[in-house]
Amino acid sequence: MKHRVPPLGVIVAAFAATTAFGVTVFPNESTRCDARPGTAIRHDAGGWMEVSCDGTYGWPGVELRPANGGAFDLSGAGSLQIVVSNAGDRAETISAHVIAKGADRGKVEPRSVRVRPGECRTIHLLLADARILTDEPVKLERMRGKVRCLADNGRNWAETASVEVFQCQPGNPHPLRFAVLDVRTAFEGVRPKIVPAADFFPFCDRYGQLRHLDWPGKIHSDADLAEARHREEEWLAAHGDGPISGADKFGGWASGPQLKATGFFRTEKVDGKWWLVDPEGHLFFSLGITCVYIGMETVPDNRQHYFEWLPPWETLPPCWDDPSLKHVNFTQLNMDRKYGADYRTIFADMAHRRFRAWGINTLGNWTPERVRLLRRTPYVATIDFSSKTRLAAVKKAVFGRKMPDVFSPQFAADVREQAEKLAEKIGDDPWCVGVFVDNELDWESPEDVPAVAEKYFSTVAAEVKAALPNHLYLGCRFAAGGDEAWRAASRHCDVVSYNYYARRPEKELPPGSDDKPLIVGEFHFGALDRGSLATGCGGGQTFDQNERAQCFRDYVNFCLDDPRHVGCHWFQYTDQGITGRFDGENFNCGFIDVCDTPYPELVEACRATAAKMYPRRAAATPIGK
């Protein structure tokens, strides 16, 4: 049956007035609204603007400019929030960006939201995207997030030329109709600290923190580390039982329905909603954190001047991916300072204690055996890079890791070998939720995606089930890929996994896919207010730790309310170093910082969410309703 979309007026009336107060860009009599080619706009008496696109132009939308030809003054704000709705009969990705006066439009990154028919969404554009600037350019290498120069900041929000709201469809132009309801600023802006370039280096202090800024909880001495340890021990003593009322030892819902107990994790649809079921037969939603290991290495070679202090050069170990280079791990150094020689044992113990207290019930992907096999928190296992044989006949790579040559006999042999090795370690361990195989493969590159996908998932499923018959096959952690790959995964995986960095997971099941449970393998949000130089992947930008925590709650609650999702896992346990990991990523993505200090806002958001997790999930709308 064709989806019935309510009139725009009904959609607008249903929109709750949740936008933040500040500078109102629209509706505003001082703002001029210009239609892009192939676009018509109509202003409603209620103050909102209808945008109709005829499908003849690849970038339809509207451009908002000051009516007097001057510039918007957004200098006092931290973000711009744009509320849009969709009155079409198909989901649309609506994008927006802010163009500073004199800026190169081609270098301005837009932000987007996926808006379903009859839905209102908010696009969040971070304005205060720097807490530090230099007066002259400084050269920084092997880092994603860097420090911009005052002279070429490129985002002088005091002189904003335009705000543009549009739909990107150069490869698939089609008619659409959406509305712009509200455009206004939120949060009080932050004036970046200006650091003379001559004084910028070194910018990383002896604890791996940004030297030029201060913030609550920053570590300035070993005595601060000892005090932080003491305070957290007191907190864990008071909160160690965790926020999940009636939880069993696995973190399942012991006070909920009693289902068949098989001694292992499995899936079951209950009252029209997919669930995991834990070994004791209790409903289980997998709320996890990935990469529970001791920090991340950074490369000091040819960058020694970045660091205020380094251990003796001859003591630095080689990089795991390039033995010709050294590496330093500041989280590891801080753990040694904080806990002493037995820090590795204490780290593993502390992770389990924290997770129970926070309401986290799953150790996510890439957590090492020394943590997983303590068998105090359920965990996922992984077979990473399932084959040495990689597909040769491919198109130009689009995104992700190169596909295996699934038609080579070596592929099945490689998967079998690694599955059997994993089975030797975890066997019939009831604490194992399931097994991921591979990560973020390039599903756009094969010439014949349906054939490759079918062969890939059928082979992997067969080998995993042969070696690990009592554990769930959790899929390949999609980051991109078309309908054909998704359909094949749904035929052969117990749970279909995908990684999704946005304000909420928005994957729509392709037509013809089987009804299977879903799990988010990675998501996160980051902010710049605690010394980070980069926020995170995709749509993970937030203004500060408070908004970051709220975004965590919103994301998890969306998964709880969706009857298909059986879990979601935050990436990752520890922040990446400000000088970048092996590929330059230096995101504020951790539940704890480089000094092993938990982010209190995130912890409290997690506890509050976990406390209501199971009743909320039980009340979710069933599939098809």
Notes on the protein architecture:
This protein has helices spanning 8-14, 222-239, 330-339, 343-358, 369-372, 409-426, 449-467, 483-492, 545-561, 600-611, 613-618, and strands at residues 24-26, 31-35, 39-43, 49-53, 61-66, 77-86, 92-100, 111-115, 120-126, 132-134, 148-149, 160-167, 176-188, 193-195, 253-258, 266-270, 273-277, 282-284, 286-289, 362-363, 379-383, 432-437, 472-473, 496-499, 518-523, 565-570. The chain has three domains: 8-195, Galactose-binding lectin (Jelly Rolls, Sandwich), CATH 2.60.120.430; 219-254 and 286-377 and 500-625, Glycosidases (TIM Barrel); 378-448 and 456-477, no CATH class. The two termini are 14 Å apart. A hairpin with a 4-residue loop joins strand 17 and strand 18 (282-284). With 625 residues, it is α/β, with parallel strands linked by helices. It is 22% helix and 22% strand. Helix 2 (222-239) crosses helix 3, helix 3 (330-339) crosses helix 4 (343-358) and helix 9 packs parallel to helix 10.
